[in-house]
Specification:
By secondary structure, the chain is of the alpha+beta class. The protein has 2 domains: about 250 residues, no CATH class; about 100 residues, no CATH class. About 45% of the residues lie in helices and about 10% in strands. It has 15 helices and 7 strands. The strands form 2 sheets. Strands 1-6-5-4-2 form a 5-stranded antiparallel β-sheet, with helices on both faces. A two-stranded antiparallel ribbon has the order 3-7. β4 and β5 form a beta hairpin. α14 packs antiparallel against α15. It is elongated and about 70 Å long. About 45% of the residues are buried.
């Protein structure tokens, strides 16, 4: 299990027109059926977990490829297009209120797939913790508003979820794949893709955050009254934010500070910390899994670990390179050519075999061709 990548996209308002959605559902059903029949459900999940392929898939279906809306529209289209009985794959959750039904839908689909109670509980846990990690363990200013959980009749899963930054009107998409995860809390991704890089972001999943993760667990297992005293000791009553005395901390050389999400938490969920104290988690994954442990609590524990105990977390945004292939706006970016070629080949073959009209086939191939350097289609 692991996060396989994430993409950062500009936010677009409005909804896809109904005529387009209907056409997308039909085409998505045909392409998905061919890929599942030809390559299997496991490869289908692998393709969905690749942010390059997912974006190209949205483009082929006819949606603006460089838009945050592709995430919610394409996952919604797939939820309608995939038939659990026919494809052995189902989509749970979705955008906004629909995401709140993910756990319930996992149970419904799991029973339909005749999965064991233990497998269903594991799937529910994977859904909840993947969202918790991207919402809490990585703090770059993108709270989640969309969570789609793909599951197969074999108990495999993938997650496509998206967070929104109102500050600069961008969205960041996260991809997870069950077969790729070794740990939920230690660099669970294979690729990290984005158009913008924050000057500073808290990344508790980074390998270099290992000492801070361990110390955070030890601190959280202390009596909450002692934790409160530690927090108070690093934030005198007259200071509202760590930013006011940043020069005194080891963050001084970080090169930037985003007060929106990296300020010293003004409050911590003390009820949650009391639950942590009573539960005594064995590791950071168990700590994150406790309900009520949110961004402020994680941030407070990280700051105590760094400033009092010298265990620094990573304050570097985990985005590593620009999103997508195709260069729509002419901005240079590194490209994984092997991934691109494989993505294009699978999509092209599926389009050519799909039971659709010649006009729709030509339109789809034309949209796909836009993503490919001239002379390579």
């Amino acid at each position: 299990m692991g996060r396989t990548g994430f993409a950062e996209l500009p936010l677009h308002s409005g909804k896809a027109p109904q005529w387009l959605v209907k056409r997308m559902i039909k085409l998505a059903r045909e392409i998905s059926t061919i890929i599942i029949d030809e390559y299997g459900r496991e490869v289908f999940l692998q393709r969905l977990s690749d942010p390059y392929w997912f974006q190209a898939f949205g483009c082929v279906l006819g949606y603006d490829w460089h838009s945050s809306g592709v995430t919610t529209v394409v996952t919604g289209v797939l939820k309608s297009a995939l038939n659990p009985e026919e494809h052995g794959v189902a989509v749970c959750g979705g955008k906004g209120k629909a995401s709140m039904r993910t756990q319930e839908e996992i149970v419904e689909v799991g029973e339909k797939f005749n999965l064991s109670t233990g497998t269903i509980e594991r799937l529910k846990y994977s859904s909840r913790l993947s969202a918790k990690v991207d919402n809490v363990a990585i703090q770059a200013g993108y709270p989640l508003y969309h969570h789609a959980f793909f599951m197969t009749e074999d108990g495999k899963w993938a997650v496509i979820q998206q967070g929104m930054s109102l500050r600069d009107r961008t969205a960041r998409r996260y991809h997870w794949l069950s077969d790729a995860v070794r740990s939920f809390v230690v660099e669970p991704h294979n690729a990290i893709v984005g158009d913008a890089k924050r000057e500073i972001a808290l990344d508790m999943t980074a390998r270099e955050s290992g000492g801070c993760r361990e110390r955070s667990v030890e601190v959280a297992k202390e009596d909450p009254r002692r934790v409160a005293r530690m927090l108070k000791s690093i934030r005198p009553s007259y200071q509202r934010s760590l930013k006011e005395w940043i020069k005194c901390s080891s963050l001084h050389d970080a090169g930037g500070y985003v007060a929106e999400f990296l300020s010293m938490p003004l409050t911590v969920n003390w009820k949650a910390l009391k639950k942590v104290y009573e539960f005594q988690p064995r590791d950071y994954e168990e700590l994150l899994g406790i309900r009520g442990v949110g961004p402020a609590t994680v941030r407070g524990l990280a700051l105590i670990s760094e400033i009092i105990y010298g265990e620094k977390p990573s304050w570097r945004d985990p985005v590593k390179y620009s999103f997508a292939f195709g260069g729509k706006d002419g901005v240079p970016f590194p490209v994984d050519r092997r991934s691109m070629d494989e993505s294009i080949r699978i999509l092209r073959d599926a389009i050519e075999q799909a039971r659709i009209g010649d006009r729709e086939r030509l339109r789809s191939l034309k949209r796909l061709r836009r993503l490919i350097p001239e002379g390579e289609f």
